[in-house]
C-alpha cells in the first residue's frame, strides 16, 4: 500500500476525474449538507455556551462550559450539517468581506457554540438571500452511521468496498490505518502502484515493474479523465438536477 499521511478519509477518484466532472458544473454552486431540523443538536450543541481557548492559544486545551445556557436565536435561522463542505469563491469572499454584517454576526454566535464547523457555514449561506439558492445538499462523502448516529461513523473495510464505489461519492471515511480496503482503492480505482503517485496523462515514462511511469512527466496541466469518472459524473448530474428542480434549497 502506498504511504498516506493519515487514513481517516480517502479520495475515491483521481484528481483528473474530479477536475473533468466539476468543469461542467457552475462555479457558483456550494456543496454543503444542511438541514434546519436541529433535533438533539439544538439542546446539546446550540444551547450550551462554550469558550474554546484554542482560538487564541498556540496549544490545545479543554473547552470551558458556562453554567448558563442560551435560547435558540430568532434573529436568524440556525442550520446544521456535515462539516465537510465545498464552497464557491464568491461565497467565501462574502464570508470574509461580509458586506451586510451577517457573516460577523453569525461568527460571534458560533464562536461560543460546540462544534461550530457543523453550523456556521450552513447557517450563513441559508440566511443569505444572495446565496441560499446556490446550495447542493450533499457533502459528497460515503459514510456508514449508526441509527441514531454516534460521534463518528463506522470504520470501513473490504466488505464495504462495492457499495462505497457504487455510491459515486468523491470521498469516503473513516478507515483504520493500513486497512486492506485502502489497497483495493489504490489498485482498482486509482491504479496507483506501491509508494507511487496516482498516474495521469502527465506521466510520460514507460510502465515497467521496476519503474514508476510518473517518474518522468510532460505537461502537468494535461487532464484526461479515466473510465471511473462516469460514476462520479452520474452522481454530480443527479445532484445538480435535484438542485435545478427546487426553488428553495434551504429548508
From TrEMBL:
The keyword Aminoacyl-tRNA synthetase does not apply. GO terms for cellular component: membrane. It is a single-pass type II membrane protein. Transmembrane segments: none annotated. Pfam families: Branch. It is found in: Membrane. Its main location: membrane. Keywords: Glycoprotein, Glycosyltransferase, Membrane, Transferase. One of its GO terms (molecular function) is glucuronosyltransferase activity. InterPro entries: GLCAT14A/B/C (IPR044610), Glyco_trans_14 (IPR003406). The keyword Transferase applies. PANTHER family: BETA-GLUCURONOSYLTRANSFERASE GLCAT14A, GLYCOSYLTRANSFERASE. This is Uncharacterized protein. It comes from Quercus lobata (Valley oak).
